[in-house]
Recover the amino acids of this structure.
């Protein structure tokens, strides 16, 4: 064997490695042909649109309280709500851009939930005003938001806990619906995390509500 023989083997070894990697990649690609991601369905798109509206109000209410409360527990939870839901809203905005559909739809709020048999008939929307639909989503009315801004001290803190518990409960119902109706893995994974975090926050808000003797 000459001294050059080992050096001559390296191109063959490298070529073999490339072929093995290429076959593995091709095998992975071919194995997914029968399970192609179909992309978002109408429920995924509707959820992303409606939850941005829902999150925007939660952030607004959280910032109102964060700026005024001296209660450390409420400062922490309002900060968490404002930051987490701002990030999630941006994520959902990005999904809609990726999907190539308008950020705003022409259908009423919750129309995507019309086929959800487990949700008690929400989402028909045709005969309801937007204010009524927003109330069904657990959202605060304009008058309630004005009351929250105008209130001070414990009265404001109690009103915040009442409004945010109701708000989170509406969001959890939307999460439950998308888990049954959605198809996009990113949507389902993110929605699951939303539901878990907001359920924990509801428990924390209820405990604060009791501590403040809100009645």
């Amino acid at each position: 064997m000459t001294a050059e023989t080992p050096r001559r083997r390296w191109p063959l070894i490298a070529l073999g490695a490339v072929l093995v990697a290429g076959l593995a990649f091709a095998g992975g690609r071919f194995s997914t042909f029968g399970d192609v991601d179909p992309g978002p369905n109408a429920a995924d798109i509707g959820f992303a649109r409606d939850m941005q509206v829902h999150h925007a109000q939660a952030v607004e209410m959280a910032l109102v309280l964060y700026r005024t409360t001296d209660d450390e527990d409420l400062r922490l939870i309002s900060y968490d709500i404002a930051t987490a839901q701002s990030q999630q809203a941006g994520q959902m905005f990005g999904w809609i851009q990726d999907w190539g559909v308008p950020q705003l739809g022409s259908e009423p709020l919750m129309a995507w939930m019309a086929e959800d048999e487990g949700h008690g008939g929400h989402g028909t929307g045709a005969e309801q005003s937007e204010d009524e639909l927003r109330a069904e989503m657990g959202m605060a009315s304009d008058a309630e938001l004005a009351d929250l801004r105008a209130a001070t001290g414990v009265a404001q803190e109690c009103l915040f806990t009442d409004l945010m518990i109701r708000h989170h409960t509406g969001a959890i119902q939307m999460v439950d619906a998308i888990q049954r109706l959605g198809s996009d893995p990113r949507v389902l994974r993110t929605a699951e995390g939303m539901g878990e975090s907001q359920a924990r926050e509801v428990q924390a808000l209820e405990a604060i509500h009791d501590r403040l003797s809100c009645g």
Q: What stands out?
A: The two ends are 92 Å apart (CA to CA). The first helix runs from residue 5 to 31. The CA atoms of residues 62 and 81 lie 6 Å apart.
